[in-house]
Amino acid sequence: MNPYANVTQLRSGLDNGDFSAEELSHFYLDRIDAEEDLNCFITVDAEGVLEAAKRADKAIADKRIGPLTGIPIAHKDIFCTRGLLTSCASRMLNNFVAPYDATVVERLKRAGAITIGKTNMDEFAMGSSNETSFYGPVKNPWDRECVPGGSSGGSAAAVAAGLAAACTGSDTGGSIRQPASFCGVTGLKPTYGRVSRYGMIAFASSLDQGGPLARSASDAGTLLNAMEGYDPNDSTSAIADATDIFSSSRALKIGIPSQYWNDLSPSLTKVLEEARRALESLGHRAVSVELPHTNAATAVYYVIAGAEASTNLSRYDGIRYGHRTASPENLEDLYQFSRSEGFGSEVKRRILTGTYALSVGYYDAYYLKAQQIRRLIRQDFLDAFGEVDVILTPVSPSTAFKREALIEDPISMYQQDIYTTPASLAGLPALSLPCGVSDQMPVGMQFIGPHFGESSLLTLGREYQSETDWHALHPADNHD
Amino acid sequence: MTEWEAVIGLEVHVQLATRSKIFSRAATTFGEYPNSNANAVDIALPGVLPVLNGEAVRMAIKFGLAIDAEIASSCRFDRKNYFYPDLPKGYQISQLDQPIVGRGTLPIFFGDGSIREIGITRAHLEEDAGKSIHTAYDGLTGIDLNRAGTPLLEIVSEPELHSAAEAAAYFRELHGLVTTLEICDGNLNEGSMRCDANISIRPKGAVILGERTEIKNVNSFRFVERALKYEIDRQIAVLESGGKVVLETRLYDSERDETRSMRSKESSDDYRYFPDPDLLPVEIPDELIESVRVTMPELPTAKRNRYIHELGLTDYEAGRLIEDPHGARYFDAVAELSVNAKLSANWILGNVAAALNRDEISFVNVPIAPDQLGTLLKRIQDETITGKIAKSIFELLWTEGGSVDGIIESQGLRQLDNTGELEGVVSQIISDFPDQVGQFREGKEKILGFFVGQVMKATNGKANPKQVNEILRRELRA
Lengths: 480, 478
Known about the structure:
Number of strands of chain A: 11
Distance between the termini of chain A: 18 Å
Oligomer: heterodimer
Structural class of chain B: alpha+beta
Strand content of chain A: 5-15%
Strand order of the largest sheet of chain B: 5-6-9-1-10-11-12-13
Radius of gyration of chain A: 21 Å
Order of helices and strands of chain A: HHEHEHEHEHEEHEHHEHHHHEHHEEHH
Distance between the termini of chain B: 78 Å
Strand order of the largest sheet of chain A: 1-3-2-4-6-5-10-11-9-7-8
């Protein structure tokens, strides 16, 4: 069995009886065991996945086959899964077994997917290196000294290492796209409102969006198709007409924003330029485009995300569930110690800065100002999409960096997000896909599209991947 | 000596009578087992999201229309952040600066017939918190989240009330209005309406407001009046003794009839309000407002005017009848059937009110359907039965039910107005009491009552009193 088989290949293998869902699950479970060192998983649900696999095999035999029937996937531990630990990689929720399934989890189940486990991540999705997890850092399968990116680091590494067919992730300021780029996989952050947030533990409500990490744009589209859609349980979920996941190929105008390309290192510029030429050779036209407020995006992002997080995380008070300090003297102690012990330092930093940004006397200067600039950033994109169909940018200023390289330097760590936060602030869909290597580490590029324009991104990605092999590289090639 | 004036503004929290909560599908029924009406959203599990209950919006609009206020075409929900054990999310979803209902007015009526229009600054939607129970467990506090997420409409008045009595009248009027609108069950004992009062004192005629205090959570008409009366007197005493009123929150202790300082407001809390990103701005199209408008019942003010000017009731009768919208509705039905508003009002404020009082029930549970009481009053007017018989049928209907006409027929209570039959009874009585006949003929007119009594006794009260009088006078004079 090929650990790097994509969903289409797995689908035909299962349907043709080349292997059963149960065999496939065993295969991945064995690989997860063998790759324990990567620390991709917080929970492995061997019993659950094998049971579900048996049911899937029965369904396949009965020809009741959904697009993902019998295909083992893993969920980022930010998604509530009934009966399974849902920790958000925090000591705070180290004892929290969710009593319900997130809408995303439920919909993927309905499409036939079976859940093999819950992947590691940065605590409460706050981090760009997967080093803030209570369960320890995830290693990058391409170089185990390096980080896999974050916050969906466990999901990206698990797909890269062939531990699951695909994974879910969540992206607030780049948390799907940057780890996808660091691990050489394809990750999609959908339009804000396309995928329900119900049951996905909130970090920053106006930015959070669930999406897939997969082996290809094609697989990402298959997963998105299962995950997306209006959800009455999420007031911010969009009532959009069902849009196609892929569209027919046509010649696109691809915008190249100088603000994303000018400061790029020579080695990454080389890779990105080559990707641009490859796209042009497919018949698309690259033109320059201006996104003048890009520089402010990271600062704006950290103000808004912090502000929202500071109140979203107020519910973790040690009273109804989650970590509670031992023998508090009084209510004040109960709050203070439960939260001090339950949250890690990055989470505390964001709660503190967010609280500050919302405080009387600072609200106007920080939160309100950030919202104003957010509107300008959004307008930049709306203007740009008047001229181009897709915007091509790097995903990250670097390839995967060494563990502990940035963790003590939050500002530099935050700068990792400069190319991913603008699309988040504007609520736009963005696809991260491998486009080369630099120093033997994967490099990703980003397609940003207009609202609900996923189909052009995925179609362009599929086209690119049919002509190139970067997405088919996997870490084993390094060791061979 | 300075003449003082009190300046009072009330913030009334009205629990809206929706079946489910404002942001979750859990039921709002009162008195359930602790935490049985609290679902994943109410207990703020990780990952849950609020979804606005459209019925709460409609109810708020209904209130806005009733006070002739502007309904916001777009409004917003904000988070009010603070930690408290019975506040599961660590914030309350409320409306800070874009309330659903803008400025309006509420006329209040006083016993002497005078009217004052009180300004309402705004009314906004928010969620209620749960309850902390400190008594049930030794050394521990229980949390009951059944109430958490119950929709509230917070109605803020202008500081235009100038006495404890006015404040109580305003609270009472508001109670009448929200129950008439059927947006609140009005059950004060269950906390369906809770009142916070802001109060300050200034020399009469002064423009600048004095320092205020806030009295929290006064939940009955009587306590509002008593708490404010106490607080007005206290503040005047402080000022007259040369002291200063301190900005603070005070609690009313109904057992000792006094207010006590609860906490100083000097270090004002920072609630870090900001727009709730889980909820989109609420757009309120004109069509929605119009669809609510057509469901508006007759409002208390219009009802009062109709009772007085069209039906000829007194101020007092009108006021008493509209106090309870169920009572007013009962009256309307009875008056229509009986075709006599005055008689209906007399019976409802007399016999019906007395029986309700005696049995400790309210108009919701009147055992006599309005059509039966209406028929009863009709039978009095068409002289089928006497007033006396009507009273006894009323008791029978109250305790055993049945139909008025059925009871009249089966028990033979039809008024005796057959002249021949009555003449027979009268002549028998005249021959039975020769002494009394003599007295009458000697000019002792008063003795007529004795004869009427005898005729009623002989006919079991069924005789038509008018006819009895006529026949008696004629026969006695003969």
